[in-house]
Design brief:
The complex is a heterodimer of chains A (351) and B (280). Chain A has helices spanning 3-6, 18-21, 63-70, 113-124, 128-137, 153-165, 183-198, 210-216, 234-241, 253-262, 282-291, 306-314, 340-349, and strands at residues 25-34, 37-47, 52-56, 78-83, 98-101, 171-175, 202-207, 219-224, 227-233, 244-249, 266-271, 274-278, 298-303. Chain A has 351 residues and is of the alpha/beta class. Among the domains of chain A are: 3-97 and 169-240, Rossmann fold, CATH 3.40.50.300; 244-303, Alpha-Beta Plaits (2-Layer Sandwich), CATH 3.30.70. Chain A has a six-stranded mixed β-sheet with strand order 5-6-7-3-8-9, sandwiched between helices. Chain B is mainly alpha-helical and 280 residues long. Chain B has one domain (24-277). Helices cover 76% and strands 0% of the residues of chain B. Chain B contains eleven helices and no strands. In chain B, helix 4 packs across helix 5 (113-120). Classes of the chains: A alpha/beta (351), B mainly alpha (280). The interface between A and B is large, with 54 and 43 residues.
Amino acid sequence: MAVRGVSVRPITVRPLPTLQDVRMIEAENLTKRYGDRTAVNDLSFTVVPGRVTGFLGPNGAGKSTTMRLLLGLDRPDRGDARIGGRHYRDLHEPLRVVGALLEARAVHTGRSAYNHLLCLAQTQGVGRRRLDEVIELVGLTGVARKRAGGFSLGMGQRLGIAAALLGDPSVLILDEPVNGLDPEGIVWIRTLMQRLAAEGRTVFVSSHLMNEMAVTAEHLIVIGRGKLIADCSTEQFIEQSTEKMVVVRSPDAARLADVLGREGATVAPDGDGLLTVTHMEAPRVGELAAAEGLVLHELTPRRGSLEAAFMELTRESVEYGIAAGPDGALQEGALPAGAPAAATVQEGERR
Amino acid sequence: MTAATARTPPGVPAGAPSRGTRFTRLMLAEWTKIRSVRSTFWALILLVVLDLGFTALFMGLTVGQWDKTDAEDRATLAADPVSSILGSGFFLSQLTVCVLGVLVIASEYSTGMIRASLLAVPRRLPMLWAKATVFALVVLVLGTAVSFVSFFMGAAILHDKVEVSLGDPGVLRAVIGGGLYLAMLGLFALAVGAIVRHPAGGITGVIGFVLVLAPLAQLLPGSIGEHVHAYLPSEAGHLIANAHQGKDDLLTPWQGYGVFALWTFALLTVAAVLLKRRDA
């Protein structure tokens, strides 16, 4: 998509083409408490059409709650959620506008897949031909007449996706769609989401798996403990949140470590002449070694794993974490759409 | 990518239908829901079997024990045979309507289906009204049919001892009233199911109302007990299946049904308010 090339440029507000100016999904200061637990805390973001937007956060971060608020299933304590400028409950034929897959199953176990879809279709006046179409699209044709209660997790997900696609909606809100799918299913749903986005639809998909989102989503909205952590392109996120390091090997590792350490690098010896250097770029490491006349056998810039970076980023906000920091400490409020990169940089520098 | 610009704006589907057809669609959807779950089907079969079975059994026993029955009991039966015929059938079979009424809505909560339903009908109340209408109609049609069969069967069994025909005063109304009672009971149960949102809890609640509260109220002393008992939903409601007001009844058949209807609509109102307010 058009954004790809541009999004590498850091921090600047991108001059976006038409489609991306449409704020299809808008969350505005959304807050939801259950008892004394704040599930979503002053969360604001927008989702635009034409690309897959990943909604990322550890378990319990408030992703599902946010989606339920968007869909009018739960009422926010504060703030507002709109789809295409309207509240979900004001949509005339909602399934023709928004298709949703919820994390928890939303199917009567005693009803066949076909009848489940049929009763939903009937509420919106969706015809039977479309019904057969979506059943075939998700690959449930053979089992459509079987009771949904007997479905495997993966088949249940496919049924949920069929229900979401029933009204041929322009907005898709999918909560953990890859859950329970086999590798083939994961590739299928990934391809499907990307195709739907390429058709100009808005695809908003949650996941707690960073690596999955890295290959599926073009844009990321990351939350932890109900608060926004990052709102930026996936490339930016990877660029700024994974730690850069340099792996260097030298027969005189001890002296090299000393030299690099004096110049401000953090050096971790790995034995066998191997050093892992952080807080210093590879060229600088090479220059310093040359200046000291040290022999290098290897000099490799590396990146930390994305999953590790994500864990690091959200560690303080993990619901079940031990001795998590105070609630608001991680990130101050909502980030303006143009400045997410700065936020993630800060994030990295804090450690 | 080029197709992107061609998409219609959200929330403005072409050919928005009128309100009437919209509700018809919701009713159609609710009908699909009811007919496509096996428990509904079996509960309705059970309703028919229990009703007719117990009518036959009780009337058969009544005839069989006729010579040993004292005069007072014979007189009671003779005074309003239709209420005995219908009542013996309803006594147990009404429980299937109670269970089904609760399940029709509470099973949506227990399975998570409610979320799909509310995503399709985010204003929520039309879904409740459509469901209530369709379920009441199903029970009304089946209940009235069963009521007629039960009556003809019972009347035929009693034939030698007590004569009763559809043309007798109040009898036709009582037989139709059998269907009306079950339909209202279904709505009553549905309302409780919508409030409790839990199948087991809802069923316990309704059966408590229908079976437990009545004998309990009778234990209250004097006229307080009588009045409380008379105004209990199912006690007041089943009077509609009597040919006329019995000498001990505080309410006429239609008054009784009115009381039952008030109970039901009060609970439906509570259910509606809660449905609108609560997180799903």
